Amino acid sequence: MIGALAMNKTAFAAWLATVNRLDAAQRKQAFQALALAEAADPVVVSSDPAAPAASPPGETLLAKIGRERIDSFGCPHCGLRDVRKWGNANGKPRYRCADCRKTFNPLTATPLSGLHYPERWQTQAQAMLDGVTIQKAAERCGVDYTTAFRWRHRFLAALNLDKPQKLSGIVEADETFVLESFKGRRAALGRAPRKRGGKASKRGLSGEQIPVLVARDRTGATIDAVLAGLDAASMAKALGDVVSRGSDFCCDGGAGIAAFARAARVRLHVLPAPGSPRPAAPQFHINNVNAYHSRLKEWMRRFHGVATDNLANYLSWRRTIEALAQDASPQAWIMGAAGLGPYQQASL
Q1: Which of 153, 305, 328, 336 can pair with 181 through a Cys bridge, CB separation 3.0 to 4.6 Å?
Q2: Extents of the domains making up the chain
């Protein structure tokens, strides 16, 4: 039916030949008519939320982000899904919601909204995948150091929220500790500044060490959080209702994490020594989560200390690298920065 209603090639060519004869007022009318005609075409979204929609041939990355964000979240202003195309502006496709009548682009209400130099974002995304320092990222992208720093944390803001909704089966959880850092602060440290990360003034655990909880199931799905303390309330705030009831929960038996497991009504397995399974049940261990701790700390070493205020962003950075795995690409990272990270994609 669409082919029968469409203008044939000869008529279209004849119509195009008359465009240069239009005056300014006529061109304005023509633009309005074309915009209204385009607005009549709905953005195609998936009828099955569990099935990702196929990308149309020649679709740009921004158009793909727009389509998938509409498919996942609807209009960023009202959340409804009756959305129409509404032309282009500043190199980005625009859409209009038929319900609230507001217009938006693919990046509206995302951390990337308002960022300049979009042609350099793929270079920035590759720098994130490579885990380079801010100075090296600034050199790659041809931007100032402060711009590279701002881009880094804007590119991580949405990924900070991209976590699996559930951990199930055998779930391993354990705490690790990261040295408190006031990197970037010039005053009110309360102590002498350390150079290039430095070391704690006291051996072992102390107030200088920030606890970080990591929980993983055997599919590799990972939750992490900076803890306010090692008590059950802090554990519950970090894990909430993420651990499925009936899961086998493996930990080293710390008082706070064990209390959380009992309150969550999961089967608790306290290992006799960290990572060491019992001979009768070798499947229950925390070797995977401890290995993740090792990879995280080794990866963070290149930054010579991470400001505690930004620690959650760096945890999400590492979590996303591992979640993307073989699918890692600048395009996938930009989609994650726009709110369509690997765990969000898995839930579509």
Answers
A1: 305
A2: 33-109, 118-157, 161-347
Structure tokens at 56: 């149309």
pLDDT 10s digits, 216-262:
999 999 999 999 999 999 999 999 889 998 899 999 988 999 999 99
DSSP assignment letter at 186: -
> What's the whole-model pTM score?
0.79
Give CA–CA dist 343/28, Å, rounded.
45
What are residue 272's phi and psi, to 5 degrees? -60, -30
> Residue 58: CB partners within 8 Å, gap ≥ 6?
none
What pLDDT, in 10s, does the model give residues 33-72? 766 565 555 554 444 444 445 567 778 999 999 999 999 9
Phi, psi of 89 (to 5 degrees): -155, 130
Q: How far apart (Å, rounded) are the C-alpha atoms in residues 320 and 327? A: 11
The enclosing H or E element of 347 equals: helix 342-347
Cα separation of 32 and 247, whole Å?
A: 58
Spatial distance between the Cα atoms of 211 and 213, rounded to a whole number of angstroms: 7
176 has which bridge partners? 212
* CB atoms near residue 181 (< 10 Å): 21
The values of phi and psi at residue 251, to 5°, are: -150, 180
Coil, helix or strand at residue 150: helix
* Radius of gyration for the alpha carbons in the chain, expressed in angstroms and rounded: 25
